[in-house]
Design brief:
It is a single chain. The protein is an all-alpha fold. The protein is 75% helix and 0% strand. The chain is built from 17 helices and no strands. The longest helix is centred in the N-terminal third of the chain and has 35 residues. The relative contact order is 0.20.
Length: 458
């Protein structure tokens, strides 16, 4: 049974925006402010640059998505550009770490806020509630992509309402003057300012993460050649505008000294709650918590819908067990959904800080390779039909590559041990590949030998 084509432009935009707008925007405003040397201007510039890097990355993805309009997204592009081994390892890392870990991380964040802040219950219940949430959204998306899509639209609208409320409060009722100067308020060495500003951009890229996921369900879009590029551009642009306005609104409400006081708390800062209470002269923390919960639920639903499609495509292509290509009577990849759910449950054994690195590292490695493949396909297959050509080629894909490398280096430096675990899984994929596919063992070792011999000759 083929997967049903039920995703249009509105659903595509809501799916992508729903995944991108999670909990990060509520907590990373102060983090980015601190990294940007406590400069309001540098902080806002970091959010703007992060949005632009994400947008140029999405433009490169749009070209590949219309060239290969198949369910599976990044896996399909890697398979065609670099061959089966690299494609297998991308799926291997995403199944074990990144994709399943995204669902786990979001479920844990949702459960922590619900259990500890809203209900005031014991923290030991957090992971039990997270497990229940993972199972619930797996069941929703098992019933059908249409049900999952409708759920996504509802969550996206629901989460935008409180965000727009805060934006309105800040812009129209805020009393603080936002200093847009790019000079830090205190004298700091230029090298430290540059280093901190670069890391601030990297942190915004983490909050923007999730924009790649629409391509994974391209095979289920009704008019992929028209709607995929539009949905990517609209979604990323919408999220970038919302993020910048949201941060600007916070800065309109809170004095700089209050922001500086919250920097030391990291992602545990109370900036959003203080801002709402300042304007409305009342404690509306519960309502803000509920808004964050709605945001995270939308992200969980979006990831639960998108990620299993990749493993379905891998099974169709022979790089995962054939059973993963099974579909339910609802036309959904039931075994892939089940496998992702089980893996997400197992990852509940890790802390959130470790999970964040597990999620980000594979995405950075393989997104870099995917953007390089835009150049590779242009050179080696210039006549391949391209319904959409990335605007600004070759500059735009080059900027995307630079952005991914920036965040990759930053992640390894600042989260070394989890990064080494992730890189260990990456290397393990190359080691086990010839054993998973014994019929290709001889050809695999020949290709490895040719690679190193050619590098040595160069």
């Amino acid at each position: 049974m083929q997967l049903k084509k039920q995703i249009g432009l509105l659903t595509g935009v809501s799916l992508l925006a729903g995944i991108m707008i999670g909990s990060g925007i509520f907590f990373f405003g102060t983090v980015v402010f601190g990294l940007a040397s406590n400069s309001l201007g540098l902080s806002l510039l970091a959010w703007i640059i992060g949005g632009l890097v994400t947008l140029v990355s999405a433009l490169s993805y749009a070209e590949l998505g219309t060239m290969f309009p198949n369910t599976g997204g990044y896996y399909i592009y890697l398979r065609k550009a670099y061959g089966k081994p690299v494609a297998f390892i991308s799926g291997w890392m995403n199944f074990l770490l990144s994709s399943s870990g995204s669902i786990t991380t979001l479920a844990v964040l949702f459960s922590f806020i619900l259990v500890r802040f809203v209900l005031g219950l014991d923290a030991s219940l957090v992971k039990w509630v997270a497990a229940g949430v993972i199972i619930l959204f797996a069941a929703i998306n098992y019933v059908g992509v249409k049900v999952g899509s409708i759920t996504q639209i509802v969550f996206t609208i629901a989460k935008l309402l409180p965000i727009f409320l805060i934006i309105g409060l800040g812009i129209f009722l805020g009393t603080q003057t936002v200093d847009l100067s790019l000079v830090p308020p205190e004298p700091i060495a230029p090298s430290i300012v540059f280093s901190g500003f670069t890391f601030a951009i990297a942190r915004t890229l983490f909050v923007y993460e999730g924009w790649t996921n629409l391509n994974t369900v391209a095979g289920e879009m009704r008019n992929v050649k028209r709607d995929l590029p539009r949905a990517l551009v609209i979604s990323v642009a919408l999220v970038a505008i919302v993020y910048v306005l949201f941060i600007f609104a916070l800065y309109r409400i809170l004095p700089v000294n209050t922001l500086i006081d919250q920097v030391a708390n990291g992602i545990d800062n109370q900036t959003v709650f203080i801002a709402v209470g300042t304007v409305l002269q009342s404690d509306y923390s519960l309502w803000v918590m509920l808004a964050i919960i709605v945001s995270i639920l939308g992200a969980i639903n979006g990831t639960s819908l998108a990620f299993p499609r990749v493993f379905y495509a891998m099974a169709e292509d022979g790089t995962m067990p054939k059973v993963f290509s099974s579909t339910s009577r609802f036309g959904t990849p039931n075994v892939s959904i089940l496998g992702t759910t089980i893996m997400a449950m197992l990852l509940l054994l890790f802390d959130v800080d470790v999970l964040l690195t597990f999620v980000l590292l594979p995405a950075l490695i393989f997104n870099t390779l995917i953007f390089i493949s835009v150049f590779k396909f242009r050179i080696k297959e210039p006549d391949l039909p391209r319904p959409y050509r990335v605007w600004g080629y070759p500059v735009i894909p080059a900027i995307a590559i630079a952005g991914m490398l920036l965040l990759l280096v930053t992640t390894i430096i600042n989260s070394f041990v989890p990064s080494m675990i992730g890189l260990g899984v990456f290397v393990a994929g190359f080691i086990i590949y010839p054993f998973v596919f014994p019929s290709e063992r001889a050809a695999y070792f020949v290709s490895i030998k040719k690679f190193f011999v050619s590098k040595h000759k160069k």
